[in-house]
Amino acid sequence: MHSTCPCGSGIALPHCCLPYIMGVQAPPAPQSLMRSRYTAYTQHNADYIYATTHPSERRHHNKKDILAWAKNCHWLKLDVLKADENTVEFKAYYLDNRLSTQVHHERSFFEKANGQWYYKTGIFL
């Protein structure tokens, strides 16, 4: 029996985000990419977060910082508030290193390049 995916879909991890994170499939839409990125944060998978960041934006990110933030948070849940053809608004709930509940509320923008969706940028709300 498999646990449900951290992304909140209610689907077992091997049938939800794991195929994307393992590179078996490409996320078909921005919402599935965003959900898989959240799941990757819960699994401390900085390689996937970095690889799914748009190549033009990668210079603003590094795996060491991504991994540090992922590990310093205890991820609680994800709420997708709105999603359209290239934008996803969500709230990610987590405990920080002082065990205080935090909410990361963002509108993320995604762009397709070479047939694959990438995280382009986000606005904190």
Counting structural domains, the number is 1
CATH architecture: Roll
CATH topology assignment: Nuclear Transport Factor 2, Chain: A
Cα distance spanning the termini:
37 Å
**Per DSSP, what share of the residues sits in E-state strands of 2 or more residues?**
25-35%
Order of helices and strands: HHHHEEEE
> Portion of residues in helices?
25-40%
Let me know the number of strands.
Answer: 4
Structural class: alpha+beta
Q: Order of strands side by side in the largest beta sheet?
A: 1-2-3-4
Q: Would you identify the regions where 5 or more consecutive residues have pLDDT less than 50?
A: none
Largest sheet: 4 strands, antiparallel
Average pLDDT: 95
The coarse silhouette is globular
Q: Which CATH first-tier class would you pick?
A: Alpha Beta
Radius of gyration: 14 Å
Quickly count the helices: 4
